[in-house]
Amino acid sequence: MSEVLFFIAGIGAVCGAIGVVTVRNPFYSVLALVFHLLSLAALFLLLEAQFVAAAQVVVYAGAVMVLYVFVVAYVGAAEPARLRAPVGRGQRVAAVLFGLALFIELAVAVLGSGLKAISTDGPTVDAGFGSPAQIGELLLTKFLLPFEVASFLLLIAAVGAVVLARRRGGIGADETEAVSLPDLRLPPGTGSMREGVGGVSSREPFELGAGGGNR
Fold it and tell me: What are residue 144's DSSP bridge partners?
């Protein structure tokens, strides 16, 4: 059963990662990333890393994805095509070559470590491996610098989203544009007692005599 769940979660993680880079709509790209992170959480559960799986769902698939949704909302998901920067042929070729080189590097690393572990029984870990106490100790001692760098990257992403939205008019547009209110002044005689008197023009003077008649 665990082997079936492993292949399902692995295929889901790969499909979600491919959807992130291939889907044109930023909103659906974020949803593909959420699916990818949930598949990784399932893989962590199969590795008996319950705390890491819970943190994956709560922190990344929850809080960080909300940040990404705000970024998409600020920058504009339905931006017209004429405002987007054109992608040249050289950029496409460079992107394909870079992705291919990264894939080869990861494949060599995974296959190399996998071949070394074929004749072994797997790594030997302590009884408290993966517990919240051990993870907190590692994050505050050995991996303190990468942990803080990741925090700064998230902060820079949020600030960059606000700056891009401000340049494109998403934030502060109402403050710069002058709002012209319609002329609410009424014509002469409108809304006064003169309208209640029939046959009297609003521009003609209206006088009452001593007997109550018009003069």
Answer: none
